[in-house]
Structures are given as structure tokens and as C-alpha cells.
């Protein structure tokens, strides 16, 4: 998978794309039908996430509506779907369990505010430090989690579920070869629902997942005291929610950038997520972030590209659960399972695990990818997996670069002088071994260390040079350091002799 970084798409281009979609029946048709498929797929997931968070199903459904509509307007990544998510549900569940619904909503509001502050602080720029191998592992782990999430709907169920899932997969795979006028997932859902209703099949349906709401969301103010004690209770969870939400949203945005070969405004997406969570909290929602599975349905499966699909996904979701709840409740879970299985298969980067790729890829890159996948799948938390993956990648990079630093003995200009040339970058990983590469006992009275082909990056390197001078001085020998570039000289002069030197 290649992750291009094309030029930024101006806001005027985004507006133009929406206007072009509104004026083009073909594009608008794609956006509308994509939104309908996403809305149908959101319903059982939002209910499931509500159960994880320990709240009523309407809390997750209303959160999905407000998140999608708000992010469609304020977010920085067109066509990306944001709603109630499992990651956020896991973070806020302890607050609901231990302190109640009002504290949960207060947590969501504070989490949204923290995301806005993080956006102002430039946290979105940290995305540049996420290597490709972590991104690939993130995508593969996501696909595995989506697939594993379907297992409960395939275990201990009536036997009719299996042929229905198989039929749905056949429709989704083969129909695009005949026509793309209507999204194949929508056709599979409609056909399987019709068969279930007409034949009165006794199979699990959306209605079995939880009760759907019958009224519109209303403004809600959490009844919590505005005290330091309240802040002490909700702040850790709000901070965790803000971090998880931002990380998943920005990773999803980066993935959509790659699929659509466009660039998104990550800072705008960050504060857009924050505002969306505040709006969601004000309407009694459980909070959320970008949903990768639904985003893949929208962008990769259905071909949507504008904010229209995101906005309509939220609108359709509200209309379906409030106005057509009885009809939606009859949709067999087998149809939605088939859709999500194809999303998982399509999301997985099969090229990354091909034998030919593994033979060519450096082992360190493969290790980072596998580590990310294992941690994400084990914790069921994409954010933790990404952090661990980045840490492993950083360690592997530091280890690899450290071996590039060499100390070379140059021809002696006279009997009393020996010249050493250091080649490579000096930083904490490479400078640790620097002290052991000199002949303190055998060298003459004057030692020259030439750093013209090196660079001092940190205090560890300066401390190592101080240690070398100390060791030579203990034997009555003098060290001259030369060839420093301007940045290295400035750092060396500022720190030399002022750092503790080990034995």
C-alpha cells in the first residue's frame, strides 16, 4: 500500500465538489445510496456499542446521528464517517458504571473540549511520525477486528443464517460485474430482508439487537456539580477518549487520503471531531469518532467522495430508526454480516503478507507491522496498537542507524598525534558505544577527533565526548575536537563540561 502526500486540496475545491455532486444526478445518486447503506450498517453497531458503554440503545444511535451530521459540516476529510464507536464506548464505560449517565455526558463534553485544544496545539502534525509499516498493521488489524466482530452473529444461530450470508456475499461480489447503478450491499440487504419477511424466516434481525428509539433527540444538560472533584473523576476518561478519538479519526483520514488520492486537513478534522463530541454530549449522546468499517463501506465499496454522503448517512440513520423502526427491525443480521465480511476482506492489505513481499521487506518493517496487528487484536484498541507500533518502529530505526556510526583511524601526522574520524550521526543510540572505540592507553599525547562527517544531535553525544576527553585526561593526554558544523558546535559549546560524566 502506497501512502501518497499530494498537495492540499483547498476549501473552495471541496465546496465545488459538493456543488458538482448536487448538479450531477449520477454523482448524487452514488452519494445518496452510499449514505443509505452506511446508515443501515450503523444501526446494529451503534446498538452494540451502546451495550458496551452500558447505556440505552438510543444513546448510541443519537450519538451516531449527531456525530455524522456535525463532522460532515466541520470535519477535514470529506466522505469519512464518524459515529459512536467501540473504542470510545470502552473508554467511557467505567464512568457510566461507577458514576452514572450524567457523569458520562460530562466526560463526553470535556473530551470534545480537549480535542479542540489539541487541535489548536497542533497534535495533528504528529501524524507525520507514523511510519508506513504501522499504517499497514493498523489497516490489517482493523480488517481482522471487523471480521471477528461478526463471529457472535454466526455462532449458535439457526442454520438458515449461513446460506443467507453466503447469498449476500455472492450478490456483493458478482453484482458489480453486471451493474454499479445501485450499491451491491444495498441490493443484498433488500433482497435478504424481502426473503425473510415473505417466507417468515425465524432468523436474528436488527430488532433483536435492542429497542429502537421512537422520538427525536433533545437537548440534555448533565446534572453534575461543577467542582474539582467532578473534574478529578471525569478528566482521565475524557483525556483518554480525546486521544483515542483523535488517533482513530486521523488514521482513518489518512487511509481515505490514500484510497481517494486526495489530501485532507488533519487539524480541521481534529477540532471538527471535538465540536462534534460537544454537540453529541449536548444531545445526550455517548460520543464517538471516525468509524473505519463504515468509512470503507462509504468510500471503497460504494464509491462516495463528498460530504453529502456523510451528512445523509446521519440523516438517514435518524429517519430509519425513528420513522421506520418497525421496518428496519426486520432486516436480518445475516445481510449486514455479509456486508461487513466483504468490508474486512477488502480492507486487508493482502500484498503486505504475500510471500514475495515478505522476502523483499526488511525484517524490522515486518516486525513493526506484525506487532501493530497483534497488539490491536489483543487489546481491541486501535490507538494502543498504533502507539506500540510507533515505539517499536522508533527503537528499530534507532538500532539500525546506530550501527551506521563508525570511528576510523586516520594516518598519524606525527609521532605525538593520532587522528580519529567519526562518520555517521551521533545521538543517544550511537553515542553509547562511542566511548569504547578509542585506544586510551596506546594513543600518543595528542588525540584529534574529526567530526566533519558527523553531526551531534543530543546531550547524550556531548556527554560521550566529555567522557572521552576525561578518560584521555586521566592518562595525561589532550583531546582536540574539530570539524564541527555550526549546529553541532553550538550544541557542544553550550553543553560540554556541564553534563555528568560516568566512570
Automatic annotation (TrEMBL):
Pfam family, one: Sulfate_transp
Endpoints of the signal sequence: none
Lipid bilayer topology: Multi-pass membrane protein
STAS domain span: 407-503
Subcellular compartments: Membrane
Alphabetical UniProt keywords: Membrane, Transmembrane, Transmembrane helix
Residue ranges of the TM segments: 32-55, 67-92, 104-127, 134-151, 157-175, 182-201, 233-253, 274-293, 313-346, 367-397
Record carries keyword S-adenosyl-L-methionine: no
CDD domains for this protein: STAS_SulP_like_sulfate_transporter (cd07042)
InterPro entries, per database record: Membrane-Transporter-like, SLC26A/SulP_dom, STAS_dom, STAS_dom_sf
Domain of life: Bacteria
Name of the protein: SulP family inorganic anion transporter
